[in-house]
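We read letters as residues; the fold follows as tokens. Both lines appear below.
***
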Amino acid sequence: ILRGQGDKPVNLKLLTSRMIDRVSNTSRLVDKLVDKGLVERSICETHRRKVDICITKKGLNLVEEASVVMENLHKKNNSLSDKELETLSELLDRFRA
């Protein structure tokens, strides 16, 4: 979610709305990411009660590494056709709803 925003900061409400599991404690998850140096929190300059969240360089590097690993696993172990993958995705969306 944060990588997709580029340099644009996001707030907790936006993060929560885009998460797969919307009942997660987003604030607690962000705290853990801050502790690991993967994201940064800062007070919004235009709205002092709002907290901006941005991914750090370390966080971007970790996401990139994970993306490469996942892509390699997908290429090596994918026994499903594109149609089957599409069906699986639709079923998972229904399951989450």
Observations:
- The radius of gyration is 17 Å.
- The chain has a mean pLDDT of 87.
- The first strand starts at residue 39 and ends at 43.
- Residues 57-77 form the longest helix (21 residues).
